[in-house]
Write a structure and sequence with these properties.
The protein is an alpha/beta fold and 352 residues long. Helix content is 45%, strand content 11%. The protein is built from 14 helices and 11 strands. The chain has a 6-stranded parallel β-sheet with strand order 2-3-4-5-6-8. A 3-stranded parallel β-sheet has the order 10-1-11, covered by helices on one side. The chain starts with a helix and ends in an 11-residue tail after the last strand. It binds 5'-deoxyadenosine and FE2/S2 (inorganic) cluster. The site of 5'-deoxyadenosine (5AD) has 12 residues, from loops. The site of FE2/S2 (inorganic) cluster (FES) has 7 residues, from helix 14.
Length: 352
């Protein structure tokens, strides 16, 4: 590793910022020693704020119906081979109870954009979970909605909202989505969520079709400006029933590098090592944690529907019970030198 490249990591750590040309150098430099140094500094920063703690989020994938047709996604409306399912309100509450008993203090309700779940239904579900488990944080990940809807759900008790921006380049966004989806509306949603007072998560896929290094730098600039409390990013993985079935998947190396860069830019961000990262590499989640990630999101969905929520091919953990995954994860995390803690794991700016 040259002294100049090492100095860029140090500058990023000290200032949280780099010039575009410097980001480009960091994202494209191929040198194992450099990668280790970047990961090491990211770990140091993460440990300053969160110590060795890793937070768990129990993910309930409650519907795979979706009205959208994103070109990359296995549950796109146009995929007539997807076996569709919806969980009932009771099933969702049961999942929440099970998650609570397993020690989760954050539940993430994730689903396709499914009009079946109106504001009224969702408000009932959020309130139901909050009444039974007032010490649990509820995170929603249900796509683009109106500001009124986001407000109602926040009033009902939802604490956080995940809505990946997918790419901060409008031109790139339009290559990943059909014409009826709008980059500007996605940005509007993120802004509304922020204004309402949610802890907000955005994020992008790494190595999605047509993505350039300049697009990734735009993502970093957007993240820097938006300052999300949470950031979800993982490799793009093709799904066999989508227009992108023959595209290349994103790499572990680039994903892990981006995780470290984000940690250095936003020292206190809540940053998961994603299931997609664990899918492209059997040690992916461990590598993510060792690159500065501090969150894991195991699946809590009932085992009967697990194999149906397939956004991409070869997804891991679709055959395991939640309890098994937690055991497995606890071992994996322990072997990295970190530890899973039972806590809501709020962003530091939101700790009451
Ligand atoms: N590969 C990786 N990630 C994907 N997502 C959707 N499809 C894929 C895929 N084929 C991600 C998107 C979405 C999140 C829920 O999953 O970023 O926002
Ligand atoms: Fe699910 Fe290992 S994390 S089985």
């Amino acid at each position: 590793m040259t002294e100049e490249m090492k100095a860029l990591v140090d500058k990023l750590e000290q200032t949280g910022n780099l010039e575009d040309s410097e980001f480009k150098a960091v994202l494209t430099y191929e040198d194992p020693e450099f990668n280790s140094y970047l990961n090491e500094r990211a770990r140091a920063v993460r440990e300053k704020h969160y110590g060795k703690d890793v937070y768990l989020r129990g993910l309930v994938e409650f519907t795979n119906y979706c009205k959208n047709n994103c070109l990359y996604c296995g549950i796109r409306a146009g995929n007539t081979n997807a076996e569709r399912y919806r969980l009932t309100e009771d099933e969702i509450l049961e999942c929440a109870d099970e998650g609570y008993d397993l020690g989760f203090r954050t539940l993430v309700l994730q689903g396709g954009e499914d009009p079946f779940y109106t504001d009224e239904v969702l408000v009932r579900i959020v309130k139901g979970i909050k009444e039974r488990h007032p010490d649990c944080a509820v995170t929603l990940s249900i796509g683009e909605r109106s500001k009124e809807s986001y407000q109602m759900l926040h009033d009902a008790g939802a604490d956080r909202y995940l809505l990946r921006h997918e790419t901060a380049s409008k031109e790139h966004y339009e290559k990943l989505h059909p014409e009826n989806m709008s980059f500007d509306n996605r940005m509007r949603c993120l802004k509304d969520l922020r204004d309402i007072g949610y802890q907000v998560g955005c994020g992008m896929m790494i190595g999605s079709p047509y993505q350039t290094t300049d697009d990734l730098i735009k993502d970093l600039r957007f993240i820097q400006e938006f300052k999300p409390e949470m950031l979800g990013t993982g490799p793009f993985i093709p799904h066999h029933d989508t227009p992108f079935k023959d595209e290349k998947q994103g790499t572990t190396e680039m994903t892990v590098r981006i995780l470290s860069v984000i940690r250095l830019m936003l020292p206190t961000v809540l940053l998961p090592a994603t299931t997609a990262l664990g899918t492209v590499d059997p040690m992916g989640r461990e590598k993510g944690i060792l690159a500065g990630a501090n969150v894991l999101m195991p699946n809590l969905s009932p085992s009967g529907v697990r194999k149906k929520y397939l956004l991409y091919d070869n997804k891991i953990c679709t055959g395991d019970e939640a309890a098994e995954c937690i055991k497995c994860l606890a071992g994996r995390v322990q072997r990295t030198g970190y530890r899973i803690v039972q806590s809501r794991g709020d962003h530091v700016d939101f700790v009451k």
